[in-house]
Amino acid sequence: MGIQRYSIIYSSKTGNTKKLAEKIREVLPEENCDYFGTEGTKALSSDILYIGFWTDIGNADSATLELLKSLKNKKIFLFGTAGFGGSEAYFQQVLGKVKESVDESNTVMGECSMRRRSSVAAVTSSTRPTCTSSSPVMRSIRRVFSAVDSPFS
């Protein structure tokens, strides 16, 4: 298996999800990045898609949901921000709703969600073999989410 190419696609209403996307980009190998930005269709050739969203009434924003519904046979890492809720249960509920829009041909490598302008509320990783807790990339991304100083402070 060769070098896996990735893209980071995000939707950001207030700029918080964009800040989080930038933090994720910092920990991934820059030379493997095909695309970074808000136009999902420009990134579809990548092996891995890091997809960021803002929460709208307990689910991802509509642009992200449309993108997720269109994807087939991709490895996806979901990350999002929410302005409401603070419990892990709430974020798990949001992530569960978002994953309902992911076609079963895709593999969700992991997911992370946090409350905007606050410390981390939830960080989870799927138990699928494509990304385990010992994966260097997942450890780096977890550090982004578990940093004491939130990128939204």
Query: Which secondary-structure class do the elements indicate?
Result: alpha/beta
* Element-by-element helix/strand order: EHEEEHEHEEH
Low-confidence stretches: 117-134, 148-153
N-to-C terminal Cα separation, in Å? 39 Å
What's the total number of strands? 7
| Number of helical regions | 4
Residues in helices, as a percent range: 25-40%
Rounded to an integer in angstroms, the radius of gyration calculated over CA atoms is: 14 Å
- Give the percentage of residues in beta strands: 25-35%
Largest sheet: 7 strands, mixed
Mean pLDDT: 77
Shape designation: globular
Oligomer: single chain
Concise synopsis of the structure shown:
29% of the residues lie in helices and 27% in strands. The chain has 153 residues and is α/β, with parallel strands linked by helices. Helix 1 links the parallel strand 1 (6-10) and strand 2.
Q: What's the structural blueprint in terms of helices and strands?
A:
Elements: E1 6-10, H1 16-27, E2 33-37, E3 48-56, E4 59-60, H2 62-70, E5 75-82, H3 88-99, E6 107-115, E7 122-124, H4 136-146
Parallel strand pairs: 1-2, 1-3, 3-5, 5-6
Antiparallel strand pairs: 3-4, 6-7
